[in-house]
Structure formats: structure tokens, C-alpha cells
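Researcher: I'd like a candidate sequence for this fold, 154 residues long. If you have to choose between options at a position, lean toward the conservative one.
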């Protein structure tokens, strides 16, 4: 019996890192959502992108764009670990739509270069910038990681 319990404890973290499906019940900002899975709410940080902060130019519009894409909809989350705030990291899909890619394509998020692995995102960001879509229509858009750094200096 102890062997079974020990084995279950060892594989439990692996079980937690499985893709899952649920309904989006909250949108915190342009890159974080809350997904209802059965009766449990899971906070999910979209991987590979970084959206403007709430207090930053375009922050409210980025949040609204993400909400328009996912709120109330059933999504699939392809898990990729946790971040330092213990949020689930994941690539989110609504049907066939990759939400991270759509946020970049529409100009509502930057590629989070430090963590980006999907090379296709770079072309989408270039396209959005050239078309002056979304945040790229601003005169001097500031990446969120720079905004956070300058905010923490104050």
C-alpha cells in the first residue's frame, strides 16, 4: 500500500501538467484568464506573449480584445508549467484559433521574446507593426517588460 501511495505522489505533478478544457469565467488582463475546470477555477497566463499592463497605454483595450476572444467560451489549454506567481502557463485555443497568435496578430500583445519559441509569432508581430494595428498605432509603444521595470524604479 505504501508503494502505491509513494508512486501516486511521484506522478501527481505529471498529471497536473496535462492539457485541459474548460470555460473562461474571467479575464484579468490581456494575457491572463481564469478557466473553470469542473468546479475548480484555474488562473492561466498565456505563454509567449506579453500584453500591456492595466495602467499602461492600450492595457484596457488589450484586456477587452482578449475578453472578446475567450470570455464565456470553452477553451483548450496546452499546459507549460507554472510561473513565479503560481499561475498555470499555457497556450490557449478556442476551437482552431491560437489565442496568443491572435493577440499578437491583432496588435494587442507583444511577443515575449525572453520566452518565445513559436517562430510564426514574429511574422505576425511584424505584420501588425507594419499595418499599425492595435498598440502599434500608438506613437511610441512601450513593451510591458520595460513599463514594469520603469514602474518598479519609481
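Model: Candidate sequence:
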Amino acid at each position: 500500500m505504501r508503494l502505491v501511495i509513494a508512486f501516486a505522489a511521484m506522478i501527481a505533478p505529471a498529471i497536473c501538467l496535462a492539457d485541459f478544457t474548460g470555460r473562461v469565467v474571467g479575464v484579468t488582463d490581456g494575457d491572463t484568464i481564469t478557466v473553470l475546470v469542473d468546479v475548480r477555477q484555474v488562473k492561466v497566463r498565456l505563454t509567449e506573449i506579453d500584453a500591456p499592463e492595466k495602467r499602461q497605454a492600450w492595457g484596457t483595450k488589450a484586456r477587452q480584445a482578449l475578453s472578446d476572444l475567450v470570455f464565456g467560451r470553452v477553451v483548450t489549454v496546452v499546459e507549460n508549467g507554472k510561473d513565479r506567481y503560481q499561475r498555470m502557463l499555457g497556450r490557449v485555443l478556442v476551437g482552431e484559433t491560437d489565442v496568443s497568435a491572435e493577440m499578437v496578430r491583432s496588435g494587442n500583445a507583444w511577443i515575449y521574446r525572453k520566452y518565445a519559441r513559436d517562430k510564426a509569432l514574429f511574422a505576425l508581430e511584424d505584420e501588425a507593426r507594419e499595418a499599425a494595428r492595435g498598440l502599434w498605432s500608438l506613437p511610441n509603444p512601450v513593451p510591458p517588460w520595460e513599463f514594469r521595470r520603469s514602474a518598479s524604479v519609481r
